[in-house]
Amino acid sequence: MRIIMTPLVSSFDLSFRQLDADSRKLLDLLSDGDLYQKPASPAPSGNTSSCGEYLVRSAAVVEQTFGGITTRLWDDPFEWTLPEKLGSTADVLEYLDDVERTRIRGFTLIQNDNDLLRHLPAPEKMMSLAALLIETLARARHFQGRAFAAFQLISDKKLPRL
């Protein structure tokens, strides 16, 4: 069943779906051995984490936000997103599936563009749903961008087109 969305809600939905798709494209290029391989030398930006760590962190930002929207619990998914728990690309893909289900559940609670103006108790302060979604997209894209940079440091494969 497809939910009919108003223009702004639809735009946010599309942005989150694209974020997820881009993470999956990068994950497809990684072997289990490459997933948590740290770059031999950090990037000028100080990038010292692995591609997998950044991909998972990007998804965790989305999970935290939509978990908060749906349950009002703003737990950081740190514990269940450690490399020891998500040790393979298949495990990370399964985690991305879980995050996407949580995101979709969250979007079912956003009926129209006016809902984006509602304020809710986000992790640190009250903020509008629109501001929260914008902040979440920015943080998730930041970590995803770091994953792409880490990938370039460990591989000579061409990055996927975004």
Largest sheet: 2 strands, antiparallel
Order of helices and strands: HHHHEEH
Radius of gyration: 16 Å
Low-confidence stretches: none
CATH-assigned fold name: Four Helix Bundle (Hemerythrin (Met), subunit A)
Mean pLDDT: 88
Helix and strand arrangement:
Layout: H1 7-28, H2 32-35, H3 51-71, H4 89-107, E1 119-121, E2 126-128, H5 129-154
Antiparallel strand pairs: 1-2
Keywords:
162 residues; mainly alpha; Four Helix Bundle (Hemerythrin (Met), subunit A); two-stranded antiparallel ribbon; 4% strand
Give an overview of the whole structure.
With 162 residues, the chain is mainly alpha-helical. The chain has one domain (7-154): Four Helix Bundle (Hemerythrin (Met), subunit A) (Up-down Bundle), CATH 1.20.120.450. It contains five helices and two strands; from the N terminus they run ααααββα. It has helices spanning 7-28, 32-35, 51-71, 89-107, 129-154, and strands at residues 119-121, 126-128. The chain has a two-stranded antiparallel ribbon with strand order 1-2. Strand 1 (119-121) and strand 2 form a beta hairpin. Helix 1 (7-28) packs antiparallel against helix 3 and helix 1 runs antiparallel to helix 4 (89-107).
